[in-house]
Each structure stands twice: as C-alpha cells, then as structure tokens.
Amino acid sequence: MNGEVNLLTKNARYRIIHMDSEYYLIDIEKSIWLLFLPILLWLIPHKVYKINEKMAEELRSPDSYTKGSKGVVWFGAGGAAVLTPLLQPILDQTIGLTVFVNLLLLMIITTIIISLRIYLRKSLHNKLYKMVDIEKLETRVIRIWPRNFTQYTKPVIIILFFVFFMIMSFYLFLITSNIIPLFGFLIMLSIALVMNVIFINPSLERKNVYRVSIVH
Predict the structure, then answer these.
(1) Backbone angles phi, psi at 131, to 5 degrees
(2) Cβ-contact 31, 60 below 8 angstroms
(3) Can you tell me whether residue 1 is helix, strand or coil?
C-alpha cells in the first residue's frame, strides 16, 4: 500500500506515516546502526506506533518546515564551497605534527562528534516522550521503501558526496597536517551522521508517497 510521510516539529528522529486512514510514528534512529548505515531504513522491518489523528496534527510540522528542509544539505555544501576560499589565507597552514599524532587527533575528533550525535539522538527521544509515551501505544511492524526512482537516488548520491569528501579530508590531514582538511573532516563527518534524515523524507519528491507493507 501507499503511505504518506510527514516530519515532526523540531524532531528529526521520528516520522508520521499516514496509511490506510491510520497514523503511525516511526523511529528512524531506533537502532544506533541507522546513524552509520541509513540505507538500512529501506531494508529492515520497523516497529511503528499507532496514534490518533489529533495527536498526529499536534506532532506534525508545518508545511513551511517540510518545504524548507529541501535545500538544507545543498545550502551547507554550497556554503562550505564559498567560505573555504575566503578562509584560505587564515587556514592554509600546517600544524607540523607526526602522522601518528594526526591519526590520534582525528580519532579524538571522531569520538567527540559521534558522542554528540548519540546525545542528540537521546535528547530527541526524550523530547517526544514529553508529549507521548510511545511504549504504551499499539504497535505494528512494517517495511517502508521509496516508490519513485529519485527517492532512491537522491539520498544515496548526497551521502556518497559527503562520505567521499570526509574520507579525502581525513587522508589529506593525516599526511599533510594542514588545518583545512581537518576543518573539512569535522564538517563532513557531522553532516554524514545526520544523513539518515533524508532517507525517509517527504521533501525528496513533489508527490509524498512511499511504499509500505505490513509485516505483522
């Protein structure tokens, strides 16, 4: 069957799925592995929580937020492209560290950013629980995946873009000790860890329709 997906107000961890005249909440970060392998959102079954129409309206974000989310990733990428040349005279310098120290520094930065992302994941969970205790709701298990070709290709292309530049920045700082790749790695890793939000997102297509099947 077809399902319509809606975002929640200021809570990127959850989605509202409207299907067969019923409303369900889906947690797109139920497993921590979905932060690192967001494509699993299309491959694994999900437990969803049934809510009534009134609750769905209270949780659902305004249309302006949904439409505005379309260009967030591209704005970030474009802003980085514009700012980097402007910051070149300031940032184009080397720290003069060994490869081992560079690797240690990159590992520390990675640990900090991942820890902050996990903290954000937990805080969004707590935020929803202030409005509704989903553990007390009726549940079903579903599978959800894109209906249109661009719903597949857009998220994959976008995340590959950021992962590629993240790896390149990692490598360049490791061998050159240049601050610019370090700065780039920090930004790209931070963005890559929130890319799961675009794998089930109403902004990818004009027609907000996903394929949904009931497992049980």
Answers:
(1) -105, -35
(2) no
(3) coil
Give 165's Cβ-side CA count (13 Å radius).
Answer: 20
Judging by beta carbons within 10 Å of its beta carbon (0-12, 13-18, 19+), is residue 67 exposed, middle or buried? Answer: exposed
**Gap between the Cα atoms of 175 and 101, Å rounded:** 11
What is the Cα–Cα distance from 135 to 109, expressed in whole angstroms? 35
Q: ∠ CA(122), CA(195), CA(107), 5° rounding?
A: 75
Model confidence over 129-158: pLDDT tens digits? Answer: 999 998 889 999 999 999 999 999 999 999
State the alpha helices, DSSP H only, in the chain: 33-36, 53-59, 63-68, 72-91, 99-129, 149-176, 179-192
pLDDT bin (cut points 50, 70, 90) of residue 83 is very low
Q: Is the Cβ–Cβ distance between 2 and 19 less than 8 Å?
A: yes
Q: Based on the number of CB atoms within 10 Å of its own CB, is 127 exposed (0-12), middle (13-18) or buried (19 or more)?
A: middle
pTM equals: 0.81
Report the alpha-carbon distance of residue 92 to residue 202 in Å, rounded. Answer: 40
What's the pLDDT tens digit per position in 87-127?
455 445 556 678 888 899 899 999 999 999 999 999 999 99
Enter the tokens of residue 85: 């040349």
